[in-house]
């Protein structure tokens, strides 16, 4: 049998490359924007640069989130991955572990870059808020962000697997219709979740104390574990590869 | 002769249709077996079932001592392994991927096969012609050194010269004692290399016979035998029920 | 080599090796190619080659030396009998067909002699 570690490394390699490409793209975008601004205004405002770093990091992060979601989903339904002699649980874990590492890598580099820039050319407002903050207080928002990403990824997998599994039980003519119905149901659940989450998250980011962090942390972790358990069950018993 | 593969009472339904119906089949060790049947007879499904990528079937499927899906993935090499490969992957990258994930994969065999078939390892899979893609599929499948090979239409849509070369590769690289189950639309292409033929019709095995016995006892070519069986004889008058 | 798809392959391989021996492509004491090589040369299954070879070994036409391979027998009587047998098989076909046409043995000989003479002339032209 192939080990979890081997599969994890194999999944990680191409995704790490993709993530690096996204990082490079955001740097290049930042630098180009910077050059354009300096060229046009003949001035060099630090605030702009920090803002650009943040903006491109966010755009790149969103695109990377989608790209990594694709990478996760292709594994569930294709022979190239499903033929690997490894249990479904280990396949599932290695798939998400590889993605998680990429997410941490991407955010880590962006944060370090941002802080470095702040160190070289501190901007007036941020200097105070950033470096007067103890490092430990930066950690909870970071953890919550990572958990949020992870939550959406396992949720997307749940939608994908549930649709795939259900489709096998429907007559061929109805598959498409029912597939859309399932999507619809999930989108409704999805929106309800988002609104509930938003309240919690806004509350948390506006008021990042220990109690709200712990609540969010436990809630998200629990949800991720529960959905993952359902996903692994679906993967093992019902999800087929495309022929 | 020792049996390598045993299917007992295997039933598989999808989209409310029965695709494999209480199928029983035994495949001996060290044989090349032709799997024949019209389109939609269930040839690909049968191979998918044996390979371990189909989770929700009834009955038992055993390869040697392997009975679970995961265990069967370890001992059988299935030619549909390349569905889901990133289109820009190079052949050498695919080989490295398989080498890492399959302990029985031999890079050496892979390289020898592609060299003998004039394939360039640095080429991208998506850039290959249909014939070259089939060569690559066969090379990847045979480079795993296992006891069972499931070759689903490995010569589909390629010219007769290439077909001959692929058949020779297959004969060269089949490990001693391994069994090859091979399906092909054109029986006559592979008739000379077969030990046995298995004919699928009405979601069941309707005939399993030694190729030489068909020639010696029935005085028929494999093709004629197949056509005779398919068009009448063993038919139980259910042929039009499902149409 | 082209096979007739209605005749067992192992049988056709035996005939092929008989012919190779009779026309001295394979001489007494010669080593046959390895089984896998033969299978590749003829594009057939290894098991089919093995069946043909083991029958040839049983008939004494080939001798199997453990670990060394298969060799054409050096036993002259077996080779002579083989030649006779192969010729006889061919003649048997001709005889059966001509007998079906109700030719007497004398008429068969005359017909054969005439045919040979005609083929000779054709070749000279």
TrEMBL record, chain A:
<feature type="transmembrane region" description="Helical">
    <location>
        <begin position="213"/>
        <end position="235"/>
    </location>
</feature>
<feature type="transmembrane region" description="Helical">
    <location>
        <begin position="137"/>
        <end position="159"/>
    </location>
</feature>
<feature type="transmembrane region" description="Helical">
    <location>
        <begin position="180"/>
        <end position="201"/>
    </location>
</feature>
<feature type="transmembrane region" description="Helical">
    <location>
        <begin position="21"/>
        <end position="40"/>
    </location>
</feature>
<feature type="transmembrane region" description="Helical">
    <location>
        <begin position="91"/>
        <end position="117"/>
    </location>
</feature>
<feature type="transmembrane region" description="Helical">
    <location>
        <begin position="52"/>
        <end position="70"/>
    </location>
</feature>
<keyword id="KW-0812">Transmembrane</keyword>
<keyword id="KW-1133">Transmembrane helix</keyword>
<keyword id="KW-0472">Membrane</keyword>
<protein>
    <recommendedName>
        <fullName>ABC transporter permease</fullName>
    </recommendedName>
</protein>
From TrEMBL, chain C:
<dbReference type="Pfam" id="PF00392">
    <property type="entry name" value="GntR"/>
</dbReference>
<feature type="domain" description="HTH gntR-type">
    <location>
        <begin position="7"/>
        <end position="75"/>
    </location>
</feature>
<keyword id="KW-0804">Transcription</keyword>
<protein>
    <submittedName>
        <fullName>GntR family transcriptional regulator</fullName>
    </submittedName>
</protein>
<dbReference type="InterPro" id="IPR000524">
    <property type="entry name" value="Tscrpt_reg_HTH_GntR"/>
</dbReference>
<keyword id="KW-0238">DNA-binding</keyword>
<keyword id="KW-0805">Transcription regulation</keyword>
<dbReference type="InterPro" id="IPR036390">
    <property type="entry name" value="WH_DNA-bd_sf"/>
</dbReference>
<dbReference type="InterPro" id="IPR036388">
    <property type="entry name" value="WH-like_DNA-bd_sf"/>
</dbReference>
